[in-house]
Amino acid sequence: MKAFVIERYGKQEPLQLAEVPEPKLGEQDVLVQIHAASINPLDLKIRSGALKRILPLRLPLVLGNDLAGVVTRVGAKVQRFKPGDEVYARTDTRRIGTFAEFIAVAESNLALKPLSLSMEEAASIPLVGLTAWQALVEKGNLRKGQKVFIHAGSGGVGTLAIQLAKQLGASVATTTSSANVELVKSLGADIVIDYKKDDFAKTLRDYDLVLHSLGAEELEKSLSVLRPGGQLITLSGPPDPEFARDAGMPKLLQLIVGLLSRKIRKKARQRQVNYAFLFMRGSGEQLARLGELIDSGVIRPVIDKVFPFEATDQALAYVDSGRAKGKVVVKVR
């Protein structure tokens, strides 16, 4: 089958179109013919080698973390899917590879594609949708009447998180550029801060939850907008010891990971707020619940561009430029 691979790690390492073996199917796996895959900042981090210590993957490597497609075969112990089913998924972190024609996905990570979405729209959802769900619902326990501040509201995670937070009954503040103010308002944002003109830390106070996805400066400033007992959940800050334990890292590596976030965790304690790092995981069950919200019209995908499969490298470069609104998708079939 055809797939885009990298031979080595590097920030500018080009993707190479190659012929690779079709994936082997385990007893609890589903073989999916990929129709569309989306690009995520995670792909850029993996390509650069920034995650190789905590996410060991074998080179040469097929990139790509989420997909929509059609089931072609199922493993002997698969019960919920059959050939012909239209599905979408976020792969296991150690079994990525959706920039390809086929992939084997664990049944537990798979869900039926929302009926109201095209393949391209469905492929834009899994990673960012699950990230929003696990941050706001699972880890953040966001409730009606609470206030949440979501960084980068026009990005892939931001566009989904705003909609989900509003569905949960929360008041939402976000940052974006002036060009995207109307977009985030249309998604439900109550307070929109133009980050090029105003400082969110001087505007927002007493928030229950912050979802952080930017740099170190924004991470530290986010502490000041939280009420005592509030939560700072980061997707891009230094990982915490809980993440290292849950990932099954060796004790020494757990200690090193803990040291990385010691400074920010100390500052959080001084302000009486909680700090947590989120590295989302695949979940077919959560995707099914997101699919119900999508088909009911509560959540809609936001797609900037769709690239042909042959232009996957250009799609990755476009995401790397930081100009994308919502998601960038590759049409594989």
TrEMBL record:
InterPro entries: ADH-like_N (IPR013154), ER (IPR020843), GroES-like_sf (IPR011032), NAD(P)-bd_dom_sf (IPR036291), YIM1/Zinc_Alcohol_DH_Fams (IPR050700)
Record GO terms (molecular function): oxidoreductase activity
Every Enoyl reductase (ER) domain range: 10-330
SMART domains registered for this protein in UniProt: PKS_ER (SM00829)
Pfam families found in the cross-reference section: ADH_N, ADH_zinc_N_2
Name of the protein described by the UniProt record: NADP-dependent oxidoreductase
